[in-house]
């Protein structure tokens, strides 16, 4: 027996994180970078293209604004990175945006951030997979021809992987991410070498096309609006930057410092790649249009609906490496893979955030249990369903999906930064050490600037993108917000209802005696076991109860009862309608009426079977009776199980389920830190 | 309190059938006829047309065989009616085909009949509704233009009606059925008067069309085969004849005699109507073709795909009464209504047969409970789903659906009649009274002829229709048969496993002591109640158990435990992975290991809530723990419910559910008779 339970436990210890073995599973920076940065780094695969797309509305001449827009994005990136470095230092326990907003700005701000993040996770999946499909499609045409199908297939694949519980290993992330980063850097370097040193002319496949401007000669306010819209689209490069601030506990010591340097490294890489790709796009004359079918002209003729506009990164790679060359294929594959990994991070983040929200009673409490397979499964399926729906509605078109994407990100950026300002204010009110104060004032300044800048971007995004799709994201946020507040209200109401009054004794009508009833339909092993157990309980009275639905059967039961000389008295209820539930309920109620201070204990023999279809064949009336009895005050219901042979199968299945590995374990870091956070334990009643 | 439970009871007594009030609810013949005969009578709406359709394959000249085929159908009808009159006398308790075959030919024959009947019920719905739609369509063109949609809509409507529990009142059936019968008779009489007395020429709308024979000049074997196929199609008129034999207990006394006369009356009416319609069709020159689009010619040109071939009964009515005349419309409406009522009888029969099969453990046992809403609902939904699927696949084309229809009917006719022969043989072996013997020998002769004739028809149907669709019905039967035998095998296996050994005491390892554990997460009213109840049980040991998933919460719990001075010792289990289930299971197992002869009683405080969505928010981990505990031997699990305010809503809902009225109550007749039948009580172990 001890062997049987030890084996899964030992397997478990090998995987799950126990306080005494934590050191080994913590992430070194070189692994933490790919784990946390696959989302923000992968966004350079689509962000540069989006900038050019929007600019093309005003014609190809507007492309010369792109370096300025890139510069604005870079400044924003540095601001955000600098701001989050403050978060990381202030919340070494992993203060995600939700917790920062919740702690410093109150539950409404926290819930707003949470809604924004949930929407964002859905969009991360939808956008990353759509973009991954487009990048893969530049090397494998079949994929682009069946875009929606392939995108949904990838979603299904990721969902199944996560439902089965893949372990998020550092290596899984490290290889494609580093290949991707290296590929992009080689491309930038080789492109620069060919351009500046060899003086080659590199031509993107779209270099010879013309762009028909939708609004020729835009100027003044309209032009500013367009530039702001292009900037908004470029901000897609910033999505996922906040991930590290959630994952500080997963870093090696010194945690905060390591997290902050990783954050800086990530920002540096992202910015370099973003600018490099924009630069190469300019150098190789990439032409992108919002509606390539009609706005891209080849010798004056529109290209038509069959034309597939490849992503900027792939066009640039084609110009630099040559179409179909080894490096081109490797880069396309790595790009797609990194984008799929970025989608996978949402599969980890969504249920994790769900469990934190459940802890604060905004979501069903069962999501709270960490590593509970069912809880995670629900979250994963919800995420996958919503993402697949979006992919299907938007035809797996990353450009259209990105319109929805940025709102949520900047809502949480802004609120998180405002929260940080409050955080520093609060600490400054009590801190006396001038050195620390100086530090705090500096941090506060950075966060204030971050809050201001990200808030500005949020307004820009809302204004320029609202009608383009941002309203969909806002609607999603409102739905999440409303649902979660309703759940919280429900829990609060119930908590008030069941709160124990003070004083040592509470239940005013304390029952004085117990009347036990064993339900009997036939004499078989489960019944005999239930009778034996009931006798052991030594309650005040004990009787067996049967319902007469078939006279012959009842007579047989009575006869056998006598023949076996069973010492418990057998009572038979008549049932003119051949029901079982109602006579039992009525009888129990009549007992309670006779002596209201007595409790009634109903003991039900139950079979335990192994397969779901066997459940359909057994115990249904017992289950329904149990359900009804629970509504009757003063009654307790006892199941005495009898394990059929087939129940072994179910037992094994349950054990397997328990050995399941929740996704996102690596990035979540050790367990015990979170439990001690004041923001949580303080809220429990 | 007594008022509250009495009201639903009184309502119930008014509806359900209690032995002391049975007389009033029994059916007089004038009501029994429409209740039981809507199915067989309504089939004259499609059977005559099917005969003409098949004959048309050999050209219009083959139509002169139709009186001979009608004659064969009449002879068959009389045979079947005469045979079933014997059934009715032999099984006054309502021996349906299943029970006759089961009792006399053994369980395999019984199960075959049951499978055939289940398939038949599905087809009754599909065929009757499709035909009803076609008849309605002859007056309302919209309906025919959206045939499948309308047919499915009617199925959905009937399903919802039956799920809500309409009471099958005699009047509901009586009015349309009598209007239909009267309408057909008026039509026949008026047509005969116009034809013979007034010497009017009556022309059906298709009278001037020509039929392009698919096989001109068929002769010899091919012609015989075609005639047999036409006869098979005509046999559709016999479907539903057996219904009365199921419903003998619903008749007024003398039950068997009244049932037998009703059967004879029904046979007479059906035959007259069938022949009358065939006669009128010949007189008014109705032309029907299997493929009207290409085989019906108007002035030598095919009519094409848009042409709608109206049913014979409607064409005849148009010829006799005039198109759009009041009587024409009334007859079309009554025909459609009777056909829908015929479909409704399947909604009553299917779950009823299901409950009988469940009694014999061929179907999940919970279907057994008579009047159990859930059981009936499952049957109704299954029936509706299968019928809707068939309607959709076959485009609501009654002609194509009828190809599937007759097989099941004749399988059960034949086996039932063979069973009756056995029945008489058995009784003749012991009966000594010469008068009774004479009677029995006469009955046996009738049933023998019936068995022979219906068996012959079954072979004819199988041979002539197998490739036309009968294989689908056979496949359905095989699926039902296999499923039901598998269920029976499962029940038998479990019954063997749990059978109590003989002798007064059985459980060899009888537990000697009980160790009680109350699960505690927080101190609130449900916990306090569970503790109070547990103390009352006076088991050998009692402790409270909590799992430490959050150190702060656990400390708060310990403190409050002390402060309240609760006399039960509190044990806290550590949970390094923050699970709840596993530590509790492990602890219980360790208790069992220490003292294997002790039983463990786990007491769980539970909230009872009122809405399904509240269930999602509560008790999930308790439920899962309960599920796991049931697999652990030697454990009993007690729920101590705490009713939240919202649970009142659920209580009311449960009560409403119990007041629900199962469909088919009228035709089933009183309850207590069936219970006494030897075929059932003999089979229970």
From TrEMBL, chains A, B:
Region feature Disordered, mapped onto this chain: 647-685
MF terms in GO: DNA binding
Membrane topology qualifier: Multi-pass membrane protein
InterPro entries assigned to the protein according to its UniProt record, in alphabetical order: AA/rel_permease1 (IPR002293), APC_K+_Transporter (IPR053153)
Keywords attached to this entry: DNA-binding, Membrane, Transmembrane, Transmembrane helix
Superkingdom: Bacteria
Subcellular location: Membrane
Pfam families for the chain: AA_permease_2
Transmembrane annotation, as ranges: 65-84, 111-133, 139-160, 172-193, 218-241, 262-283, 326-353, 374-395, 401-424, 445-463, 469-487
Compositional bias ranges of the Basic and acidic residues kind: 669-685
The protein's name: DNA-binding protein
